[in-house]
Amino acid sequence: MKWFEIGLVSLTLLSGLIWLLDRLVFAKRRARRGGLLGSDEPVIVDYARSFFPILAAVLILRSFIAEPFRIPSSSMMPTLLIGDFILVNKFSYGLRLPINNHKVIAIGEPERGDVVVFRPPHHPDQDWIKRVIGLPGDTIAYRDNTVYVNGEAFDYSDGGAYEGRGRGQEMTGATLLREEMPGRSHEVLEITGLPFRDPGEGEWTVRPGHYFVMGDNRDRSDDSRFWGELPESQLRGKAFLIWMNWDGAAGGVGFDRIGRSIR
């Protein structure tokens, strides 16, 4: 995604520069040679004039308003399935410049339970998605499939055995739980009865300017339990809508997924 962003910015700047130079310099020279302003316009200028507004609009839309992403893995099941196409609000946590992700206008900060897209510190060229569990200053613990925040355990209710679909069928039989965090609830998956100690167990204190994120598919998620806290500077935005689902293994378009809000 980062290379697409670089390409979009480069093409927008290049087409805008060509169009501007022609308007300020070359078009006037052609006019002085006896033609009308803009007559005998070179093909490259015609393309630049046509495509610059479109490229600029796309750049502004995906950089500052909403950006589409596709879910490639099972780490956020059952909330998000493989093949979901989602929209991410790009201004929820401040306006950021494309490519370097530098925040230029502060608007808001993540809340516990938000589903966020970010670039992990150990894979800065990739876009990942997880749920915010810990805020700056929190002490997070994960033991016996239970999340604790500042010593208080989340409440859980058993939703029975989960039935996967398409490329997520490997999770069929996992335990579906409703996790109750302060002010918000959502579903998670746990594989119970494993014969070995959960490598994701531990306790962590979230540093200022960082967040602790976890996937809803607790036994199939590479998250803060393994690579540490997420720096605020790596946030990309807040996921809010599933606008399409395509999973060939599940028969193609999942119409029941379209239009679902992400909570």
Automatic annotation (TrEMBL):
Tell me the keywords, alphabetical order: Hydrolase, Membrane, Protease, Transmembrane, Transmembrane helix
Give the enzyme class: hydrolase
Keyword 4Fe-4S (UniProt)? no
Span-the-membrane segments of this chain are 51-69
Q: Where is the active site?
A: S75, K130
Source superkingdom: Bacteria
GO biological process entries: signal peptide processing
Which EC number applies? 3.4.21.89
Compartmental location: Membrane
Occurrences of domain Peptidase S26 (ranges): 45-244
Topology class, membrane = Multi-pass membrane protein
Query: Does the keyword field hold Cytoplasm?
Result: no
Pfam families for the chain: Peptidase_S26
Could you tell me which InterPro entries the record lists for this protein? LexA/Signal_pep-like_sf (IPR036286), Pept_S26A_signal_pept_1 (IPR000223), Pept_S26A_signal_pept_1_CS (IPR019758), Pept_S26A_signal_pept_1_Lys-AS (IPR019757), Pept_S26A_signal_pept_1_Ser-AS (IPR019756), Peptidase_S26 (IPR019533)
Q: Which reaction does it catalyse?
A: Cleavage of hydrophobic, N-terminal signal or leader sequences from secreted and periplasmic proteins
Task: Kindly list the GO molecular function terms attached to this UniProt entry.
Answer: serine-type endopeptidase activity; signal peptidase activity
Q: GO CC annotation: what is one?
A: membrane
Q: Which CDD domains match?
A: S26_SPase_I
- Alphabetical list of PROSITE patterns matching this protein: SPASE_I_1, SPASE_I_2, SPASE_I_3
Q: Which NCBIfam families match?
A: sigpep_I_bact
Identify its protein family: Belongs to the peptidase S26 family.
Protein name, as recorded: Signal peptidase I
Organism this protein belongs to: Luteimonas yindakuii
**What does UniProt list as this organism's lineage?**
Bacteria, Pseudomonadati, Pseudomonadota, Gammaproteobacteria, Lysobacterales
